[in-house]
């Protein structure tokens, strides 16, 4: 298995992570500045995944740690694929 490095320390990632079968990591902006377009895009992605019998996880869904980058890394390791929503 290839080595995975922690973005927090640069050391090899040794912490266990949960696997989420048939789940994509959905990366999107969080907080109060989310536009209506981004909310719509998020809803459409969730609906498309549900129709295909897949689900999505966001960093907000993972409550085991307060470090947001740590949450994102654990989800990227545990999910089968990722989807990023960016609207400029």
Structure description:
With 88 residues, the chain is α/β, with parallel strands linked by helices. It is built from two helices and three strands, in the order βαβαβ. The protein has helices at 36-51, 68-78, and strands at residues 20-27, 55-57, 79-84. Strands 2-1-3 form a three-stranded parallel beta sheet, sandwiched between helices. Helix 1 links the parallel strand 1 and strand 2 (55-57). It starts with 19 loop residues before the first strand and ends with a strand. The model has no long low-confidence stretch (mean pLDDT 82).
Keywords:
three-stranded parallel sheet, 88 residues, alpha/beta
- Secondary structural class: alpha/beta
Please give the share of residues in helix.
25-40%
Multimer state? single chain
Mean pLDDT: 82
Low-confidence stretches: none
Gross morphology is: globular
